[in-house]
Amino acid sequence: MSETFLRNLNFQTHNLGREATLLLTFDGDMKGIYKEFCPIVWKSCSFGKEGPYSLRATYLHQLAFFKAQVDEGTITDAATCVKINKGQLTKLTQDDEEVFHFSEPEDGEKGFLQAKNETGLIQDIGIGFMCPGELMPTPLLYFNGVGDGSCAVAKFIPKIRAYITSDYEQTAILQHAIDGHCIWEQDLSCLDSEDTTWKLTYDEYYGYRITRG
Fold first, then answer.
1. Residue 77 φ/ψ region, left for φ over 0, alpha for ψ in the -120 to 50 degree band, beta for the rest
2. CB contact at 8 A, 28 and 161
3. Can you tell me the distance from the alpha carbon of 17 to that of 203, in angstroms, rounded to the nearest whole number?
4. What is the dihedral sign for C-alpha 139, 37, 124, 189?
């Protein structure tokens, strides 16, 4: 059973000096990334050149598999989902009415999250986290074209990374690594507080930086 924890991240800036778009995603060094699965843009928020701006991002470490619905490279919705913990496996099926179902999770490969496709057809499957108050998960990872009898498998670590780029929309599927410098990364499980504040700054020498407030 994985430990469930909540993280409220508050990103702030004041008189940044230039307009910038902050992108947050979970694109850490995971085995199979961009080959077996792709990360998804979690947050994308624009900050102005002058004045105060803020972004609040809430992460709940309760993961879930979902039947992904995709439109033009963006996750648009989830047909159904099931909560999953590390070391568990669930099975995706489709009944005679073409309704999708995930089975109750059972013991799977130690340390991994697994969803086996037993629908008889190729399916798109995602991993997300259950945002407080929401029925369906917030997308994190996307598995494109999982074959019948095959599994979507991942060893997920909640390590968030930040970039300055306006090239991607929120919930966009990242088919390849972002063409830009990662300005900040943080394993959310290692934070010592449920609520944290982070300051986004810019100067000519260091460029963009995020530091704890």
1. beta
2. yes
3. 8
4. negative
At residue 142, the 3 state secondary structure works out as strand
Nearest to 16 by CA among 51, 54, 55: 51
Task: With CA atoms as reference, report the closest residue to 87 among 126, 113, 125, 117.
Answer: 113
Tokens of 59: 């992460």
Task: Name the residue type at position 182.
Answer: C
Phi, psi of 123 (to 5 degrees): -135, 155
190-208: per-residue pLDDT in tens?
Answer: 999 999 999 999 999 999 9
pTM of the model: 0.94
Could you read off the pLDDT of 156-189 as tens digits, one per residue? 999 999 999 999 999 999 999 999 999 999 999 9
Closest by Cα among 25, 62, 35, 55 to 137: 62
Identify residue 204 by its one-letter amino acid code.
Answer: E
Residues ≥6 apart with Cβ < 8 Å to 59: 6, 7, 9, 129, 158, 160, 188
* Residue 210 · residue 11 · CB < 8 Å: yes
